[in-house]
Amino acid sequence: MSSLVASTRFSFLDRSRTREGHDGPQALRDTVRLAITAEALGYHRFWVSEHHSVPGVAGSAPTVLAAAVAAATSTIRVGTGGVMLPNHRPFVVAEQFGVLASLFPGRIDMGVGRSVGFTDGIRRALGRDREDADAFAGQLAELLGWLDGSQGAYPQVHARPAEGLSIPPYVLATGEGAAVAAEAGLPLVVGDLRDREKLVRAVDRYRDGFRPSAWAGEPYVIVAGTVAVAATAQDARRLLLPEAWSMAYARSHGAFPPLAPAERIEELTMTQKERGLFDNALAGHLAGTEEEVAEGLGLVLEDTGADEVLVTTSTHDREALVDSMERLARIAHLV
């Protein structure tokens, strides 16, 4: 299994999580610094995400942040994980990626998803509603049409400078969205690692339904999930505590807080509901020593046949996060 891990691409996704004692602008600067680290360690891609009006997340404009990341790096591929297509006009998305690909040729990935704002207020602010997610397949087809020049609805309109550029698209999805990726002949990004059976079913359906296209001649699967590596299993678990508590608090109080230090979370007295949510948020991730995570990754790759692993790890301690990235890079023989 170690040879399987060593022959697989590893990439990193950062969601620009805010931390207690640090504001949103600091979180965005942290993301750029993390990209520089990922490049030095040999990761294949560095992607950023899109969230709107979430108190604990600063990344609301992924193409803008991707430009900052690409400007601060020189070799690593940079992209979005992803732009939520139902929130935007495909024409504008094509233009934005055209600008990125023009400024940073050969390094830009266009990852798109089908989620819309998660509350009614956010959807109204975006000028969207819940049903817009159902139009994803058509929006994706329109977006690809602007890129390859086949968009025929507006014959005199062209998405400049995107048209004709090489901007590889990726679909972030499960279920119906994975079927859309297969029908369109696009690479699939699918997660998370905690429900292995569901993950394998989604990958199998995608491969079974894949139709070769000008964008991809065969299926390409990127599995995404949380991975934490440390000197001991206990230290790796502590890396997961801030995100797990943030998720548990959000689901029990309706507010998504910044990441708290692990030592403070360990001292909390949780309600029964909070404890249940917290334990559930902790379960199923790949966390442990280098040997333990290598074995876990080998099993994931064996089960899914994935071509690439997209890692996301959110924690309060930035030094511990970088240490985890370094250890994972050693596992994957990136350095």
Describe this structure in words.
This protein has 335 residues and is an alpha/beta fold. It contains 13 helices and 11 strands. An 8-stranded parallel β-barrel has the order 1-2-3-5-6-7-8-11, surrounded by 6 helices. Strands 9-10 form a two-stranded parallel ribbon. α3 links the parallel β2 and β3. The two termini are 19 Å apart.
SSE topology string: HEHEHEEHEHHEHEHEEHHHEHEH
What order do the strands of the largest sheet run in, or round the barrel if closed? 1-2-3-5-6-7-8-11
What is the CA-based Rg, rounded?
Answer: 19 Å
Number of helices: 13
Q: Can you identify the CATH class?
A: Alpha Beta
Helix content: 40-55%
Mean pLDDT: 92
List the uncertain runs. none
The CATH topology:
TIM Barrel
Integer count of domains? 1
Structural class: alpha/beta
What descriptors fit this protein?
globular, two-stranded parallel ribbon, 13 helices, 8-stranded parallel β-barrel, alpha/beta, TIM Barrel
How is this structure best summarized?
By secondary structure, this protein is α/β, with parallel strands linked by helices. The chain has helices at 2-6, 24-41, 62-72, 90-103, 120-126, 136-148, 176-184, 196-209, 233-253, 262-266, 272-282, 290-304, 318-331; strands spanning 9-14, 45-48, 77-80, 83-84, 108-113, 169-172, 188-190, 221-225, 227-229, 286-288, 308-311.
Helix-strand blueprint:
Layout: H1 2-6, E1 9-14, H2 24-41, E2 45-48, H3 62-72, E3 77-80, E4 83-84, H4 90-103, E5 108-113, H5 120-126, H6 136-148, E6 169-172, H7 176-184, E7 188-190, H8 196-209, E8 221-225, E9 227-229, H9 233-253, H10 262-266, H11 272-282, E10 286-288, H12 290-304, E11 308-311, H13 318-331
